[in-house]
Fold:
Amino acid sequence: MGYEEMWRDLLPIGRVSGGGHRRYSWTAADRECRAWFAEEAGRRGLTLEEDRNGNLFAWWDVPGERRDAVLTGSHLDSVPDGGAFDGPLGVVSALAAIDLLRERGVTPARPLGVAVFAEEEGARFGVACLGSRLLTGAIDPVRARGLRDADGVTWADAMAADGRDPEAIGPDPDLLTGIGCFVELHVEQGRALEVPVGVASAIWPHGRWRFDFTGQGNHAGTTLLRDRRDPMLPFAHTILAARDAAARHEAVATMGKVHVTPNGVNAIPSLVRAWLDTRAPDDAAVRATVAEIRAAAEKVAGEHGVEVALAEESYTQVVDFHAGLRDRLAATLGGAPVLPTGAGHDAGILSAHVPTAMLFVRNPTGVSHAPEEHAETGDCLAGVEALAAVLEDLLTR
Ligand code: GLV
Ligand code: MN
Ligand code: MN
Structure:
């Protein structure tokens, strides 16, 4: 399938009214994405394999052992109402780059794999890059098995329901040691790239924290203001405190997900559970931002007779991509710009284990994690060309 046909088949999967995508792990949309990938791999005669953690790999093998392989690819899952490009662009571009290399008669000296990592967004089970974390041992499999979605379904039960063995998940050193390097192409997610293609330098440290504000559920009409223990009030204060703390530390902080119990219009809530995402160029700024938000939450919760608990659900240290590989990519592309990002990627997880680099494709609006996410076709095709050039260099030298 050509480039446009691949998009034509992939775009409708998990698309909701409003134009965004809901492609959550181990759901019907996820199965369709996996089937799409299997079909595209099959069409190209690539060997499709799924590891013990739900990650997919399509291999253009060379005779002999699978070692010193070049890995590319990205993910196909999405955030709630996610755009078309975050993840899929890296997978579609990888397959299109293989087509280009073959058209050009390139003979790889080492294997090339296209990866589709599972649960990159953490949209269903809360921990981003779960597939690559499991593969590399960055998360305890016991903890991963017990991660729950909003309905209380565990990762273990969800993967078992889809025919996988949750007892088998965990680090896969055999697979990892066969990988010589990883190059992930991704849509740039801000407005930092002014030419079609750039190279990543770093990923900001980032993490997710869960706040539980526990008060007393009660009647909205009969409970006097002075008698209330309303958890919504310290939560509201915490949102504003997050904004102020982030501004003070040149960080970003977001509270974009909240569950209110019981969520009734005429009831004071008993529990507000809300998630904080904080990122900054350096670790100290993230930690200082979160510490200030926590202090503000605790102070105001106390004033309202509300209990507050904070749990760190995930944390990713700063990632500085492999300097040699980064420079090699930039040179192959004739001096492409090199830039950091505040977005998380499987490349960040892999980079602790294998030389890793990223290519970014321009995002003219800077909108991402939203249906309006966009990249011009010309820029996407420049991305395919760039990836093909980089892969040819890595596969043949
Ligand atoms: C993933 O896209 C993230 O940055 O949260
Ligand atoms: Mn994303
Ligand atoms: Mn992504």
Summary: The chain has a mean pLDDT of 97.
